[in-house]
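The authors assume throughout that readers already know how a fold can be written as discrete tokens. In essence, backbone conformation is discretised, so a fold becomes a row of integers matching the chain in length. A single example would do more here than another paragraph of explanation. For illustration, here is how one protein appears when written out as sequence plus structure tokens:

…
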Amino acid sequence: MIKKILVVDDSFVMRTLIKDIISSDPDLLVVGEAANGTDALEKVKLLAPDVMLLDIEMPGMDGIECLKRLKLISPCKVVIVSSVAQVGSPQAMEALRLGVIEVISKPSGALSLDLKSKKGSDIVKISRRAAGLAE
């Protein structure tokens, strides 16, 4: 069964990289994308994704506020993909407290063009786990 993924990042380049990573797995389908938390919540209502790949630092509504509101409207699982949510950081700890499946740090800052080579397999593996698929 194909699982639906929503990609949320304020950078068009990062959304494109993440969509490319996800499309390498035939069981995962990117059904939408959003540039901030407000847009993400609207897309969740329309698209009912199984998993959201969410950045933290975005204009308007950031990822942490989006997580808080998401819990009220959807059972969607969330994986953080962010440059500010490094393992052990306050942002990562707050995201985990709010129920995210995992925090994946972008390897080279907000615009990590090496994301696919350094974290691509982790993103697919964790997205599959979040969606309830075998790794």
In short: Strands lie at 3-8, 28-34, 51-54, 77-82, 102-105.
